[in-house]
Amino acid sequence: MLESRIFRDAARGDALVLAAFSYRYDAHLVPGLIENLAPTVHGYVAWNDTGAEMALTPETTRRELILAEARRLGARWILAADPDERFEDRLAQRLPEMLAEGEGNLWMFRLREMFSPDHYRTDSVWGGKSLMRLFPISAAQGPLTVALHGHWIADSSSYTKRDARVNVYHLRMASPVRRRMRRELYAAADPRREFQPIGYDYLDDERGLRLERIPEGRG
Question: Among candidates 45, 57, 36, which has minimal Cα distance to 16?
Fold first, then answer.
């Protein structure tokens, strides 16, 4: 089921920026996500997946419905998010500068996997994760085909990927129980590792664990 809300209109001459996300198992985290993003975006479009019968529904279907509704509402830019994530507070100050660089850019955010309330993991694959989270809606053309761990846009070849210099903090990994649940959920949904060759066992493997505290001013 689609849901949308506009917090405020874009100022004359400014682009309308909408957050986009879907939720099911983490519905209780949605109010916190909205609070986190409200200073940055003009509103949001979300897919409420709580009524689904499958363990995981295809990302392609949910995202295409969200994008279609965002277009109808007049969005020029999309900030993709998940309810179990929080963006740095300073994104609100960075965003106008990023948008001013033009609609030929896709903005990459460093993903910080939280292993405690204030520490994220940095060893091995953990220290190099980044995701494209801010993009012009004009880039979202053509059908999406990857049902799990896919991208919001089908073809990025004609766009420039830029570093947003903003962290996204992933909360779901912050406890051993949650890490195990995440591994089990995705391992069951993707038993042959078609959508993620590295597999999912690493999600709760603490060998070589190295943590770093969230830097001052980057909360």
Answer: 45
